[in-house]
Amino acid sequence: MAVEMGLWRAEGGQLSRIVPTSIGLESQLEGYIESDPSVLGEPLLVIGRQVPTAHGGFVDLLALDETASLHVIELKRDKTPRDVAAQTLDYGSWAATLGRSDIDNIFATYRPGLALEEAFADRFGDTLPEEVNTAQEFTIVAASVDNATERIVRFLNEDFDVPINVVFFRHFQDNGSSYLARSWLVDQSEQAKSSISAISRKNKTREPWNGSDWYVSFGEEPTGRQWVDGMKYGFVSGGGGKRYSQTLKNLPIGARVFAYIPKIGYVGVGTVAGEAQRYDQSTLLVNGAERQLRELDLSGNYRHEGDENDDNAEWVVPVEWIRAVPQAEAVRKTGLFANQNTATRLRNQFTIEHVTAAFGLDS
């Protein structure tokens, strides 16, 4: 049964139907989704547009979700032709062969000068998994769909657990304003159930997050930040570039953080006590009194060239240490989690259990 969307203006007790209009060029709808892929129903990071495949043809949009599964998004204006499902699956068969280096190259072409890891952390507030593209999902975007395509999509989705769906957009104009309305061929709750095999594959690649623990890299530098300051006054920090400070801003008050000095080990476990602030504006609670960090007796230097710009500034997050130790007492062991991002969700249960045990804390 064809899906139809209607929109009415309610005015003075009367309903006036607003007639949908053509959204225009297919590239216009493509541009809308590229600028805000969340209109497809979940947070996504677009990694490529009009991506050439190895078998000819171009994928309209490629995107990653927060599990680093790959989304193949095909856009077709007006009536979807009968073969669009086959085309989407054909592109999907190619996408399934893409390795990490292929994904990196696609993104480098799409966003030159920006690392995929940085973009992923900015989008999802989390580190990019080591395994990327372990599962694929397919979305056909259309203004309408023919009966044959509807039968094919439902058959693949409901009988064979293929994570494929059609999202419909209708374009309305009323009193000088434009609106987009969205609907799905397969209900998203049912889509989630029918995609259980793909979801299981995703979950195998990443441990669940407990909702509270974060990893923080305290990058000591000979002429820069020093752990003795962070341990003494209660803070973690990062800066000298957006990629070093952006993820710190994701730390919520009350979160538990595991502080790690690269190549040294874990040196502290504490609770986030405040939001991230620029170093030159940050205040800390010291001996019961609020103090400006820059006025304290510090061993390190927290200024950077061009730090009048927020992206280059050092950013500081106050932490109430539950346990903090000098570098010489750092907890280190083969297999403990370490990551290049300044802050990311800590999912590795082995690390959580080992570090809390070493510090004499309950996990």
What is the compact description of this entry?
The protein has ten helices and 17 strands. The protein is of the alpha+beta class and about 375 residues long.
Description:
With 363 residues, the protein is α+β, with helices and mostly antiparallel strands. The chain has 2 domains: 17-204, Trna Endonuclease, Chain: A, domain 1 (3-Layer(aba) Sandwich); 213-358, ph1033 like fold, CATH 3.10.590. The protein has 10 helices and 17 strands. It has helices spanning 26-35, 84-95, 100-110, 116-124, 147-160, 188-194, 196-204, 227-233, 242-245, 349-358; strands at 7-11, 14-18, 45-52, 58-64, 70-80, 136-145, 164-174, 177-184, 213-217, 235-239, 256-261, 265-272, 277-278, 283-286, 289-292, 314-324, 343-345. Strands 9, 10, 11, 12, 13, 16 and 17 form a 7-stranded mixed β-sheet that branches. Strand 6, helix 5 (147-160) and strand 7 (164-174) form a beta-alpha-beta unit. 37% of the residues are buried.
Cα distance, first to last residue? 53 Å
Counted by DSSP, the helix tally is 10
Task: Tell me, briefly, the overall form.
Answer: elongated
| Named CATH topology of the largest domain | Trna Endonuclease, Chain: A, domain 1
